[in-house]
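Input set for joint prediction.
Command: fold jointly, output C-alpha cells.
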Amino acid sequence: MVNSLGVVFGITTFGESHGEALGVVVDGVPAGLNIDEKYIQAQMDRRKPGKTALTTKRKENDIVHIYSGVFEGISTGTPIGMVIYNENQKSKDYDNIKDIFRPGHADMTYMAKYDHRDYRGGGRSSARETACRVAGGAIAKMILNRLDIEIQSGVSQIGDIKATNIDYSYADKSEIRSLDKDIEPSQIELIKETMRQKDSIGAVVKIKVRNCPVGLGEPIYHKLDGKLFEALGGLNAVKSVSIGAGADVGSMTGSQNNDSITADGFATNHSGGILGGISNGDDIDIEVCFKPTPSISKPQQTIDRHGESVLCEITGRHDPCVGIRGSIVCEAMVALVLVDMLLLNTTSKMANISKVYGTTQK
Amino acid sequence: MVNSLGVVFGITTFGESHGEALGVVVDGVPAGLNIDEKYIQAQMDRRKPGKTALTTKRKENDIVHIYSGVFEGISTGTPIGMVIYNENQKSKDYDNIKDIFRPGHADMTYMAKYDHRDYRGGGRSSARETACRVAGGAIAKMILNRLDIEIQSGVSQIGDIKATNIDYSYADKSEIRSLDKDIEPSQIELIKETMRQKDSIGAVVKIKVRNCPVGLGEPIYHKLDGKLFEALGGLNAVKSVSIGAGADVGSMTGSQNNDSITADGFATNHSGGILGGISNGDDIDIEVCFKPTPSISKPQQTIDRHGESVLCEITGRHDPCVGIRGSIVCEAMVALVLVDMLLLNTTSKMANISKVYGTTQK
Amino acid sequence: MVNSLGVVFGITTFGESHGEALGVVVDGVPAGLNIDEKYIQAQMDRRKPGKTALTTKRKENDIVHIYSGVFEGISTGTPIGMVIYNENQKSKDYDNIKDIFRPGHADMTYMAKYDHRDYRGGGRSSARETACRVAGGAIAKMILNRLDIEIQSGVSQIGDIKATNIDYSYADKSEIRSLDKDIEPSQIELIKETMRQKDSIGAVVKIKVRNCPVGLGEPIYHKLDGKLFEALGGLNAVKSVSIGAGADVGSMTGSQNNDSITADGFATNHSGGILGGISNGDDIDIEVCFKPTPSISKPQQTIDRHGESVLCEITGRHDPCVGIRGSIVCEAMVALVLVDMLLLNTTSKMANISKVYGTTQK
Amino acid sequence: MVNSLGVVFGITTFGESHGEALGVVVDGVPAGLNIDEKYIQAQMDRRKPGKTALTTKRKENDIVHIYSGVFEGISTGTPIGMVIYNENQKSKDYDNIKDIFRPGHADMTYMAKYDHRDYRGGGRSSARETACRVAGGAIAKMILNRLDIEIQSGVSQIGDIKATNIDYSYADKSEIRSLDKDIEPSQIELIKETMRQKDSIGAVVKIKVRNCPVGLGEPIYHKLDGKLFEALGGLNAVKSVSIGAGADVGSMTGSQNNDSITADGFATNHSGGILGGISNGDDIDIEVCFKPTPSISKPQQTIDRHGESVLCEITGRHDPCVGIRGSIVCEAMVALVLVDMLLLNTTSKMANISKVYGTTQK
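C-alpha cells >
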C-alpha cells in the first residue's frame, strides 16, 4: 500500500505533528536479532529537536515504546510496533494560520487533495513524521551492523559555504553535522545570520555506505539506485538527489567517467558504488540537496483557503536549516532500503536457496 | 513484485537486448480508451535507434504487436500485452567481451549477483529494454491526452555546452533533441568530435509537465516527487535527478526559495509544481543527468571474470550520447507515474466515491 | 509487504497476545468520512471476550485509541493509527507450556520458522490479534454504510447441530450468534456439554452481503472471490471457505447450477453474487468452517521443544467454540476486502475518470 | 498490481481466449536453474484441450515460446517471458451470443464493470488464460523438484460419484484424472450421459503436497493457507476450498480434531499440513470444488445487453466437466504459491542471512 516502504522489509507509519502519538510498524525483521533499545534511543537522540540553539526549540524526548515483535530482547520475526508519544504540541501556535496556505508548505496541496486537513504543524506533512523513519531505520541499522555495513552522513554545504575536505567522522561531533571542521565556523555563522534575518537556509547532505556487499538491487524496476532516489527524494524539502559523480556526469566523457577495473578493485568511483542498479562493492556515495525550511518569520505573500490574498507571518519553533537534522533521516532511509535489498538478494540464485534449505542439488 | 512499476496502473516487462523478443504488460488501463496504434508506433519511432548518424547504427523497427486488452480499437480494462521482436541482433559482436567486465557497465554486478548472465549486448541491463517503457508510456500518454496533460522533454546540455533559452517545442525538430536552436550546432559539433575520439559524452535532459491537476501524489511513501525520482533515477545512465530549483536550493534562503501565492497562482515555481509530495497545479519541472554511454571504442583497463587484468576495446554500435534518446524514455516514465497517481487520487475523498457510485451521502 | 492486507485500502497490524499493546494502521481511508468512535467501540464490543459464560473468561475492554488520521471527527485521508492496550495478560498461565508444542496450535511451526517465539498465549498467532481486524473493519464498515452496503453474519452450525431456518437478524440477539432461534437452545446445550467434557467444538459461520454494487473485483488475480477466500481462509481456525452453492456444485449439473437471468435479476443465486470474480449485484453468500478451539483442558499427547513426548494439559481461559466470536471477525474481513475492491473499481473505466476529473472527453 | 500473483516470485499474465496470443511473465526465478523446455511443454500437454472425447474439442497445441530470462538453458535471474499463440480461434462461433449474457458466465459482470468487452469465448474471463498459469507453474515446479517437493492432483468426485480409495499415482493414467480406478468407469459413464443431455457436471479435485519443508508461510497476512485459498479460490468455476479436515471440522471436537504430536511426527493430519499459517512438514491436503461448466447447449433463460429476455443456446466446444483439466491448473497454482513462500522464508531468521552472506555473527 502507498503508506509503506519496502518489499520484504520495511516500514508503515502513522501520526501527525500535533496528534497524540506517532507510530511505525517494522515488517520483515528476521528473528534472532538482538534488539538494543538503547541503540534505538541513541539514533532518536541524534535526530531529536531542541538540542542546540541552531535547530528548532520544540522539545521532544522522542521516547520509543516497543509494543511487539521483541521477546526477551530478541526479535521474533513478527512485526515490531513502536509508538512515540507527542509531548510538546502547542496547537495554539497554529490558530493564526489554520486558514492560510503557507508558502513552500503542503497546506495548499493537502487541502486541494483532501478538502479537510489537520493544519496544526502541518499535520501529516510535518517533518515530525521522520521520527518514525529514524526508529525504523535504527532496526535496519542493527541488521546492517551484523554484516559490518556502515552508513555515515553529514552536511557538506550550507548556503554557499561548501566543505572542501570531507571527514565523515567529524559530523557526529559537530553541532551542525558539518563534514569539514575548518569550514564549520563560517557555516555556523551563516546560520546565525540567517536566524537574525528571520529567514532559513538550504543545505547539501552527503551520505556514504561502506562495506556494502556486491549484488544488492533488483533490476530493473527495483534497482538499488532507483530505490535510493525514491527514499531520499521522497523526504520533505529534498529537491535533488545524486549518486556518485552525480550532475557532473553531464559534462564528462565516457573515458573520463568510466571507472577502470583492476585486480584490486575500481580505480575510481564515479559510479558511486552502483552499476546497472546493483551494488558493486565500492562505497555508495550519495548527495541530497535540502531546500531551506519553508517556515520563516519574515512576512510572506500568500492566500487563504478562500483565495484571498493575505500576508503570512509564521511564528512557532522551526529549524533554520532543515538539512542538518535531515542528514540523520537520510541515514535511516538508506538503511531501510539496504536491508530490503539485502533480504531480497538472498534468493537471487539457486546456490543461495541450497544454503538455506540444505538440499542436494540435482 | 520487483519487476513492475506502479500500484494501480503500471508496467511489467521482459526481454533482453539479444533475445528473440521484448515485451510489456500494461495493467490498470481503464476500459473505454481509444487505443491508437499509430500513436504508439509514433512514440516508438521517437526513441528508436538508427535514425541519425548521431545515435547508434543498430537498426530496429521496433514494431509493437498488441496481443491483448484491446477489442475493436478500444481498451477493455484487461492487461494490454505488447511484444516487440528483436530484428537486428548481432550476437557475434559480443563474443570478444563475453568474459570481460566492461567498465561502466553492469557486466560485473550481474555476474556477482547471478553467477550466470546473457552477456550479449548487456542482456537485460541493456537500454534496449526501454523500448518497453516507451510502449507502455504511450498508453499512459493516451490517458493523459484525454485530460489535456502534456509532457515535453529535450536535451539542455551536452558536455559543457548548455542551452540558454529553453524551447520545448524545438526538441522534436532537432536531430539531438536540443532545447535551444542557437546552441544546437555547437552541441552537434561536440558529439561529432566525441565520436572521432572514439569516446562518448554526457548530457542533461529537461522534462516539463503542463496542466497537471492539483492533488496527484500519495503522501508520504508514494509522493509524486518520490516516485518521479525513482522512475527517472532508475533509468540506465542516470546519476542525478532534480525537481524545480533542484540543487540550487542548497544555497538559497527560505525567502528566496518559497513561492509566494497570489490569487492568480504561484509567483514563482521553485517547487517544480510539487508541494508535500502532491502536485500543486503548476508546471512540473524535472532535470535528469545522463552519464556518457559507457560503451566506447577507446581501449580501457578492466578485468575478466577470472579477475585477470585485460584491455577492453568495445566494437559494436553505440550511442555517443545516451541522453538524447533517453529524453524520450524520460517522458514515458513520467507519463507512467502520472497515470498511476491520477488513478490513485480518484479515491482521495469521499466526495469522489460518491461521484462514481452515485449514492446519496448520509 | 506480507503483514498487510489490501491494495489501495487496507490494514497493517502489530501486537501479540501478551505484549503491552496491539495496533492497526488503516491506510487508504478517503478524506471526509465521519469517524464515529462509538461505532468502532460497538464493533469491538461485539467481538470482545468475557461477555458470556459460553466464551473465554479473559476480560478485555478492548478500548480503541485513535492516534492519527482523524481531525475534528473527520478522516483526513492520512493513515488512521489505532492502539489497543492489553489489560488482562496473565503470562504466568503459560509458564507450564513454554517449552511444549500444544496440539493444533502454531507453537511448533513458529519455533521451526523463527527459532525464537513469544509463547505467552500463542504470541502473534493468538486470535487476540483479530481485535485489530475488527477495529480496521469498523472503519471499512463506515464507508460501506455510506453506500448502504450491509454485512451480516452468524453461526449456522455448532457441532452436528445445524440451523434450518436462517435468520440473520437474530444473530446479534443470540448469546452464541445463532442464526436459528429454534435450534439455538440445543446448540447452547451442546456447548455446555462440551465445556463439561473439557473439550471444544467446531462451528460453521455464514456471512451475507446485501446491496453490493455490480462490478467489484479485479480479474483475474485479484478477484472478489479470490480475495474473500484469502481473507477468510487466512483466519485462525478456518479450514474451509465456500461461496454461493459452495461444495454442492460438485454434484450439480450446469442446468441446475447456472442462475437464469431475467429482466428482474437472477432467478437463483448459486453463484453467491460473484461471476468471473466480479460482483453481480446479488447477495454475496459465504460459508466458513471453524475448527474447534485447539486449546482444551483434556490431556493431550505432544512433544516438547527437545522432541520428547509429554502430556499437555492446557489451563487458562479459552473459547469452547471459536467460531462464535469468529463470525464478527469474518464480517470485518469481508468489509476490508469490499472497501478495497470498491476503491479499486473507481478506475475501471474512462467514464469514471471523467466523473472525478471533470474533463471534456475527446 | 492486481494482475499479478506473488510477492518475490510469481506471475503476471495477459491474453484473451480469442486474441492473437497469451503470455506470462515469471518474475523472481533464481538464477542457475536448468530450464527444461520439454518439461514445460509436458506440463502444458497435461492441461491442453482436445486430448479426449471427454474434454473440449477445441484443439490447441499450446506451444510455449520462451523469449527471455534463459540463456544457454539456464535461468539468468531476469524475468522469464513466455508467449503462447492462439491457433484455433473460431470467433464466428460467438457471433450469436455477443449481445447476450450467458448464465453462469462473466459476460454480465464484465459488461457492468467495463462497459466494453471482448465477447469471443469469454475474452479474458475464459479458462484459456489458465494455460499461462500452467506455464508459470512449470517453472515453479522445476524449483520444487530441486528440493524434492512433490505436488499431485486428481479428481475425487464427479457429480455424485465419489472416490473411495484415493490413489494419486493413478490420476495421470486416467482419461478423466480419476483418483480411484474402481470408480472411474462410472464417473466416465456419468460424463457421457451428461454430454448426451447437452449438460455439464461438477467435480471435486484433491491436491497433495509431499515433502514440504517446515516453516513456509508468512503470518499473519500472507499465511500459507490464506494464499492457497486465494490462489485456488480465484480459479474460474471454483466455489469451495478446504484444507485438511476441511468442512468436517465444523462438527468435530477439539480432542478429535487436534493432531497429537509424537516423536515420529503427527499422529493424524486433520490440519492438512498447516498450523498457524505455516507448513508443519506433514502432507498438505487440499480439496477444491468446481462448478459444472456454465456453457451448456441446453436452452437457457437469460437477458441480452438491453435487458430483454432471450433464450440462449450455446454452441461451440466446451468441457463437459471443467474440473478435470482444472486439476492440472490447481497443481500449478499450488506450485506458484509454494515457491513464493519458499523464497520469502529464506529471510525468516538471522541465521539464514548469515548462511547467505557468510558473515561472522556478532
